[in-house]
Amino acid sequence: MSLIKFEYADALKFVTENEIRDLAAEVKKAGVMLERGTGEGNDFLGWYKLPKKRRKAEIAKVLSAAKEIRRTSEVLVVIGIGGSYLGARAAIEALTDPFYNIRALTGKKRANTAVFFAGNSISPEYLLALEEIVGKRDFSVNVISKSGTTTEPAVTFRFFKELLEKKYGKEGAAKRIYATTDRARGALKTMADREGYKTFVIPDDVGGRFSVLTPVGLLPMAVAGIDINAVLEGASEAYDEFANNELAGNACNLYAAARTALYRKGKEVEILVNYEPCLHFVSEWWKQLYGESEGKDGKGIFPASCDFTTDLHSMGQYIQDGKRILFETVLNVEKPRRDVVIGTDAENLDGLNYLAGKGMDYVNKQAAAGTAMAHVDGGVPNLKITMETLDAKNFGALVYFFERACGVSGYMLGVNPFNQPGVEAYKKNMFRLLGKPGY
Ligand code: PA5
After folding, report:
1. Ligand 1 center from residue 277 Cα (angstroms)
2. Can you tell me the mean pLDDT for 236-246?
3. Active site residue 292
4. Is position 313 annotated as part of the catalytic site?
5. Ligand 1 cavity residues, CB under 6 Å
6. Which end of the chain is less packed: N or C, by CB atoms within 10 Å?
7. How many CA atoms lie within 13 A of 105 on its CB side?
8. Is 280 labeled as catalytic in the residue annotation?
């Protein structure tokens, strides 16, 4: 049974079945470029077969580090930005529970390790607030940076390294620092070697935004108690199902084709929509994956996201009635992990007895169906990606589904989906303003 399903019936008022099917040859061409490594950016295709790679020793090392962190630390601070944190955060928020950190900190001592993310901004306010949360608690740090030189995580690491050293001494601190970085290059690797930190490698041929299934994502996930073997199993099943170059019957290729067809019809903004707050960071991860991969050479779908029904009360008006450049991709979870049955009230003052006995999820699903109808009527095509439940295996499958569709879409767009030259522009200005030597 497919872990990920794709439907595009609610886009067919805007693009015809034939217009999508006619993209079969382009999809095939893009798929072959990925498979054979003949396209631009082919030195960054390590993610493509990653789910099929035998990585027993690496996974064992991740699990053993996670066990040690869970044993010794009430808090893990994960320091990283962009592809070096979004995937782990997406997984942890999607697969634990919305109040995981509060439970970890207030529940039975050390039953779980709270995982906080830092180094994804340059805000002193955020750092100081996190320092207060860590307080007297035992903590460890997982600093993640492929280049090992990115300013945001580097400055943040300096702050937490000092805190660790004050608390545990230099040697004790070094035992609590886990560095995930390049095999050989960068300041972080040099520091890790010199100070004796445990290190995890981000493969040379896996770019940041495609790195969630490497130790970048796996170590924080494992610390949060997520079954990383199940995540990898899901990705592996998705590879088996989607890593072929057919259009018919391949949900991943159909998604790439449908969004490309809509883009070519002037639908330039894709909103990834969810109806589960815990999917918020899946959308943040997805936005980086697609934004950095496709937004170049004056081209590309603008990836946006909404959390419904929350954002129907803020963005709903624009989506229904604003500029008609939008399409939505709804991330649908068929069955919630838990449900709440709406009670009966003898007085019925709130008039809600018509819902008594119904599950909240039923109401949520009717909201989704009603919204899709309204938005399609208003001129917003709807695509739909469905997982049966939100579990580790399906999460892994979803990651691979989106990564592969991104590679195919990027090549269909005619860009190199695996570089990000535009990210450097702000850094040059910032370094010059800060007086960094050489700028
Ligand atoms: O996708 C990418 O390559 C980027 O978003 C990086 O992940 C981000 O800039 C962080 O880079 P680094 O891991 O080198 O610190």
Report:
1. 25
2. 97
3. yes
4. yes
5. 81-84, 145-147, 150, 153, 207-209, 292, 420, 423
6. N
7. 17
8. no
Model confidence at 110: pLDDT above 70: no
| Burial classification of residue 1, based on how many CB atoms lie within 10 Å of its CB (0-12 exposed, 13-18 middle, 19 or more buried) | exposed
Atom of ligand 1 nearest to the CA of 209: 1
The catalytically annotated residue of 136, 166, 313, 323 is: 313
Please say whether the dihedral angle defined by the alpha carbons of residues 183, 146, 404 and 228, taken in this order, is positive or negative.
positive
Q: Which two tokens stand for residue 86?
A: 């979004």
Which ranges of 176-213 would DSSP assign to H, the alpha helix? 187-195
**Average pLDDT value for residue range 368-375:** 98
pLDDT at 111: 81
203-231 pLDDT, tens digit each: 999 999 999 999 999 999 999 999 999 99
Nearest to 75 by CA among 106, 50, 97, 119: 106
Average pLDDT, the chain: 97
Residue 108 confidence (pLDDT) above 80: no
Task: Give this prediction's pTM.
Answer: 0.97
Q: Using an 8 Å Cβ cutoff, are 159 and 130 in contact?
A: no
pLDDT tens, residue by residue, 245-276: 999 999 999 999 999 999 999 999 999 999 99
Cβ-Cβ contacts under 8 Å for 52 (sequence gap 6 or more):
236, 239
Distance from residue 249's CA to the centre of ligand 1 (Å):
34
Q: Determine contact, residues 333/390, Cβ cutoff 8 Å.
A: yes
CA–CA dist 7, 21 (Å, integer):
14
Task: Compute the distance from residue 312 Cα to the ligand 1 centre, in Å.
Answer: 32
Res 6: pLDDT: 98
Non-local CB neighbours of 266 within 8 Å, separated by 6+ positions: 324, 325
Q: Indicate the DSSP class of residue 211.
A: -
What is the CB-side half-sphere exposure of residue 207 using CA atoms within 13 A?
A: 22
- Which atom of ligand 1 is nearest to 81's Cα? 10
Question: Are the C-beta atoms of 208 and 82 separated by less than 8 Å?
Answer: yes
Which atom of ligand 1 lies at the shortest distance from residue 80's CA?
A: 15
The three-point CA angle 338-344-348 to 5° equals: 130
| Residues constituting the chain | 439
Instruction: Kindly give the number of the ligand 1 atom that is closest to the alpha carbon of 153.
Output: 15
- Pairing type for strands 302-307 and 326-333 reads unpaired
